[in-house]
Amino acid sequence: MPLSGKKALITGARRSIGRGIALALAEAGCDIGINDLERDADAQETLRLIRKAGQTAEFFRADISDAAQVKAMIGSFIERFGRIDILVNNAYYAEHVPFLNISEALWDRTLDVCLKGYFLCSQHAARAMVAQGEGGSIVSISSVHARRVWPHDTCYGVAKAGILRLTETMAVDLGAHGIRCNAILPGYVDAGHGFGTAPPALGSIPESWHGFIPARRKATPEDIGRAVAFLCSSAAQNITGASLSVDGGLLVTGVPS
């Protein structure tokens, strides 16, 4: 397993893409900490699946937009696992509202979670990685919304675009410490698809989308997770500051109406 023994923390990981990332990293040999706002049935199931894969799993409750909670979470993670090798920024908040109707509260909440939260988690994790002296990997989940505009996605799109710039800056500033920083841009994702099951068939998306998505299927959480595992592995040791689209080719074609 290419990441055997590594310790990974994933934010917003109780279900969907976060679960797919957690399970892919567990499959690769990582012990896993999952973060979210609530330890509900979804979180319990993700923990169960990680442990079923033979890896240690713990839950860390924190609102990543709050600096004190992030500091405490990273401290608790290191206390439990002894170190931190991988951080995956995945938590998000989104409401699709027309530009003229966006409230200051919505703007603040979206950027607090989707951008400020990524900064806070990355900074605290990177400080710990520097102190450990053995490098590390930070992967941030952006979106095709960072590159293309959809109606009513002002707050979310701005935050996801900011993640790309944040990733590039971190790659430059942290490279001397052996910390690699990359971003992934998911496209349409079948969030409910089960990890380890057969991928969607070719042509499983509506035929009207075939000209927009060359792969002719949605991504799965497992697709995103295994892309994260690759970027965290030694196979990607010379990749940093990169943005990897896992979108079935959506960004090179267009956007379905």
Could you explain how this protein is built, in words?
The protein is α/β, with parallel strands linked by helices and 257 residues long. The chain has a single domain (7-253), classed as NAD(P)-binding Rossmann-like Domain (Rossmann fold, 3-Layer(aba) Sandwich), CATH 3.40.50.720. Helix content is 41%, strand content 14%. It is built from seven helices and seven strands. It has a seven-stranded parallel β-sheet, with helices on both faces. Helix 5 (154-174) links the parallel strand 5 and strand 6 (179-186). Helix 1 (16-27) crosses helix 6, helix 3 (67-81) packs parallel to helix 4 (104-132) and helix 4 packs parallel to helix 5. The longest helix is centred in the middle third of the chain and has 29 residues, at 104-132. The chain is globular and about 50 Å long. The model has no long low-confidence stretch (mean pLDDT 96).
Keywords:
257 residues; alpha/beta; Rossmann fold; 7 helices
Strand percentage lies at 5-15%
The secondary-structure class comes to: alpha/beta
Question: Quaternary arrangement of the chains shown?
Answer: single chain
CA radius of gyration: 17 Å
| Order of strands, widest sheet | 3-2-1-4-5-6-7
**Helical amount among residues, as a percent range?**
40-55%
Shape descriptor reads globular
The succession of helices and strands, N to C, reads EHEHEHEHEHEHEH
Topology:
Layout: E1 7-10, H1 16-27, E2 31-36, H2 41-52, E3 57-61, H3 67-81, E4 86-89, H4 104-132, E5 136-141, H5 154-174, E6 179-186, H6 221-232, E7 243-246, H7 250-253
Parallel strand pairs: 1-2, 1-4, 2-3, 4-5, 5-6, 6-7
Helix pairs in contact: 1-6, 3-4, 4-5
